[in-house]
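The following record pairs a protein chain with its ligand, zinc ion.
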Amino acid sequence: MSLNSERLYPWCEKNWENLWQQQQAGRLPHALLLVGQAGLGKQAFAEHLTQRLLCQGEANDTGACGQCRQCKLYLAGNHPDHLAIAPEEPGKAIPVDTIRSIAKFSAQTAQQQGNKVISIANAENMNIAASNALLKTLEEPTPNTFLLLVTDRPAQLLPTLHSRCQRIVFHVPPEAHVQDWLRAQVDLNEDELAAALALAGGAPRLAKAYAEEGVLSAYQDFLTQWQHLSSGQASPYHLAAQWSKQAQCLQWMQRIIATLLKRIACQQDLASYGIVTQPLSVQTHQALYHYLDKLNVLTQKQARHHLNLTLLLESLLVTWCQEVLAK
Ligand SMILES: [Zn+2]
């Protein structure tokens, strides 16, 4: 099967085939939860599926026809049987009133005599009241109406929402599989390519975005500053003040340590990750694992409680010097 739509990325083809087989067999559940880390193309997949469910043109297993009236309405953002919900701004809560509009939309007859589709992007941003309102809609499904929830952070959704949806999990593809795709998208040398993928946690679309936004040079500077800390040329307090202006600093720290551990496990070259200066002993290895655990816990706390980032970084960088470098 050749899947060449620009919204359906090569690493998502298996998910599509499984889902479309269910649809062909008349077993497509009315509620789907698309989960996986950011940058894997889940939202694009949801859009691809939405258009396919609305399309009434020439039948096709791989995507919508793109030509029929339904496709044109959808592509113009005007399809009356599609309700698209997303936070008004990144990180902003999806309010209960918005979710209540789903019940009304579900109850009305499809205006184009086909399917109706409701999509919710960044579904983790629904607050408790909104989630409860959505549960009610899920308990009373209406025929030919499909709900697509998309999230990078499934743990933030109510367990009852999980149990009422079929999960479609998007996995990080093997690096070798996406390098060619990434090379075709952006002009990067091999080191930059590896850095972009490492920084994006292996998520190809995120790696592409990083390359296009010029984030890679900021990341390289960040790594150099960390190397300076490790070699005693920078103080943790000075660096904490500097890094706290960089919104993604905790995420970058996580990525760097995770990549370092992966490289150690695969016995790969560590030269570009000179943040650990001493020879790698078993103790250093263990200390790195503990450090990553601590970093993960604090990052989650920070996201939930908006802790003071400078103080948090000071504590993390002092710990780095005392508990990792000292091993
Ligand atoms: Zn069509």
